Amino acid sequence: MQAYAITLLRLSLGTLALAHGLLKVFVFTVPGTVGYFESLGLPGFLAYPTILAEVGGGLLLILGIYTRWISLALVPVLLGATWVHSGNGWMFSNEGGGWEFPVFWTLALLVQAGLGGGRLVPSRRLD
What is the pTM of this model? Predict the structure, then answer.
């Protein structure tokens, strides 16, 4: 059962990352996301690697490719999200979203990195 639980965590994290990245592309739009990053005082070009990390990382997690490395690679993105939401209080239901969800997501990615890919991975060498 443990291997299936690890797989479920991987698939959930991958789906969440993919959905979050696609939200930036199709709802907020890429130029809108660039503008949002700039409104935070961040360089707008950071929106591009963030979107790539979320979409590409989400797909790779779903596929079970380099699970440990991809999980670790997504941690800085979530630490950035934690920083963005840190002034809004703890609860993500607060206006502007709080910091508890990105912190939890960061910890879940670290757990996934420690556990590996579980089942349904194309190759143990790619885990």
Answer: 0.91
